[in-house]
Amino acid sequence: ERNSGSFNFGAFHTLDNLYNAIDLIVADYKSVVSKQQIGTSYEGRPIYVLKFSTGADRPGIWIDAGIHSREWVTQATALWTAHQLAFDYGKDTSVTSLLNKYDVFLLVVTNPDGYAYSHTANRMWRKTRSIKSGSRCVGVDPNRNWNAGFGGPGASADPCSDSYRGPSAESEVEVKTVANFIRSHGKIKGFVSIHSYSQLLLFPYGYKCTNPAHYTELNTVGKAAASALSALYGTQYTVGTICSTIYQASGGSIDWTYDIGIKYSFAFELRDTGRYGFLLPATQILPTAQETWLGIKKILEHVRDNPY
Amino acid sequence: EKTFVGEQVLRIKASSNEKMGLLQDLQSLTHLQLDFWTEPANPNIPVDVRIPFRSLQSVKAYLEYNNIDYTIMIEDLQVIINNEKEEMEFNERK
């Protein structure tokens, strides 16, 4: 009989296999985890979020992964994280105290159409798969499609570009689904978006090059998280605002969440050692997931201990 | 299914803002169909670019003419993708 303990988290999997693994985790840890379908992708695939909860009417922390479909190590890391979070409840004091105060929502595959497409048709696919009338090109960069400085610098108006922002903010159902969930929940206190690669831990802003009001605190938390992450295998992260660390980019998720009042908004850019880029070998999934978990935990602990 | 035979990923290091500007110019040459895995924005962060086989010569010539350092990060993208596929099939069977 299969269970989540026998699942191979150290391998890349198709969307169907990831969704099966999610079901195994839910079946194994019923008292802590449940699965909710929060929407449907452009091509009709379910968008599932895992809810880790031990009580009613709690504030929440959101974690999503792999909004750009070709970042396979990201979705793999999120799946491992889901299992770890469930497994640790009742065993690890940090996770137990977190889940006794907060619900955690974990979206393992943020862009299911793109993920499926990257497995079957184009390994390097990054965008959604939405079709726009009048254009021969398909898809929108879902991390340029949020309602934060939408249409500003660092996003393309060209539908054929890999960073096409889309016709309007939240035009992509995958983005609108998450935004609607966050809005309707009303008590999300932390938002972590996991991407890869380039080993960065970023916080707002990206659509403008001014520091956020909570710059000092976010920078301190970010540095603590990067330091915890680095302690395991020595992986070095750069920490800072999106604009100062990489480039100005409008329409990103963590800018939107910060601007609607989610103070603790962070984005991880996971490993690459400079050799493989988006094609990180499967042997690096578990080390990546293990080190990332230490960084995520630092952020979760800070949210837990600093209610607002 | 799209294949990537002969495509390379170059890791480019722009040593100044001026050279970063030249990489941004390269980004605007859409006919080369370059896929920037990391964007040219900050001289401290290397720029990784996936280059279709037919654009390789032009891009390398441009970089060398402008004295911009680069290394080949991935020699043939399809080889890595094939390895990845084989590994997935092996795991699936297991």
Strand order within the widest beta sheet of chain B: 2-3-1-4
Question: What are the low-pLDDT stretches of chain A, counting only 5+ consecutive residues below 50?
Answer: none
How would you classify the quaternary structure? heterodimer
Low-confidence stretches of chain B: none
Secondary structure category of chain A: alpha/beta
Structural class of chain B: alpha+beta
Brief characterization of the structure:
The complex is a heterodimer of chains A (308) and B (94). With 308 residues, chain A is α/β, with parallel strands linked by helices. Chain A is built from nine helices and eight strands.
Q: How would you describe this structure in keywords?
A:
heterodimer; A: 308 residues; alpha/beta; eight-stranded mixed sheet; globular; B: alpha+beta; four-stranded antiparallel sheet
Describe the protein's architecture and organization.
The complex is a heterodimer of chains A (308) and B (94). Chain A is of the alpha/beta class. Chain A is 36% helix and 16% strand. Chain A is built from 9 helices and 8 strands. The longest helix of chain A is centred in the last third of the chain and has 21 residues. The radius of gyration of chain A is 18 Å and the shape is globular. Chain B is elongated and about 50 Å long. In chain B, strands 2-3-1-4 form a 4-stranded antiparallel beta sheet, with helices on one face. Chain B has 94 residues and is α+β, with helices and mostly antiparallel strands. The longest helix of chain B is centred in the C-terminal third of the chain and has 17 residues. The chains are: A alpha/beta (308), B alpha+beta (94). At the A-B interface, loops of A face strand 2 and helix 3 of B.
